[in-house]
Amino acid sequence: MHAHDVAIRDESIKLGQFIKLAGLVATGGEAKELIAEGEVTVNGEVDTRRGRTLHHGDLVCIGEACARVTSAAEDEDDYFDEATADDDFDPEKWRNL
């Protein structure tokens, strides 16, 4: 069983929200159903509470598909990729506008 990491912005997230964010289910309705049926485990234990609060490091599984809650990097929003930057951009043209 291999878990992929899913970053969240805040300190915590609800179980139903997380399994949808992680791509373990397609819809919120599917998440609600699987949780109620006891198909979802958190840190190896079945949990039927859709509103359970998850924190960084928690491992959520549905069958063999697993995802781990991780924190987003502080500078993730400020990422600049030089390789995909617009090469035709001329800073001199925009400097005096």
Automatic annotation (TrEMBL):
Keywords: RNA-binding. GO terms for molecular function: RNA binding. InterPro entries: S4_RNA-bd_sf (IPR036986). Gene3D superfamilies: RNA-binding S4 domain. The keyword Disulfide bond does not apply. PROSITE patterns: S4. Transmembrane segments: none annotated. It holds the Pfam family S4_2. The keyword RNA-binding applies. This is RNA-binding S4 domain-containing protein.
